[in-house]
Amino acid sequence: MAEFLKKKAGPDSTRTQFNVEEVVYFEDKDFFDCEFKVRMRTNEKDTTGEMAATISKDFSQVTRKW
After folding, report:
1. What is the superkingdom listed in this entry's lineage (predicted)?
2. Engineering a disulfide at 37: which of 22, 29, 62, 63 sits with its beta carbon 3.0 to 4.6 angstroms away?
3. Quick count: other Cβ atoms within 10 Å of Cβ 66?
């Protein structure tokens, strides 16, 4: 998830840092159903939030839910 977030940040990824602090997941036949606690830091902000995603078993596809 950290790699996915860094790619989504694009050019700002050098100024935005993401730390995945906690992961809860359920392993299904074809994917992982995950919830993450993520800390995001920039020069202006320092915040922690939650997000959820479905991630393929080979980690090539990440689909955010919220």
Report:
1. Bacteria
2. 22
3. 7
Is the pTM higher than 0.85? no
Q: Which helix (H) or strand (E) holds 2?
A: helix 2-9
Rounded to 5, what percent of the chain is helix, strand, coil? Answer: 20, 55, 25
Look-up: residue for tokens 């940040």? 9
- The pLDDT tens digits for 9-66 are 666 556 788 889 999 999 999 999 999 999 989 888 899 999 999 999 998 899 998 8
What is the spatial distance between Cα 10 and Cα 52, in angstroms, rounded to a whole number? 20
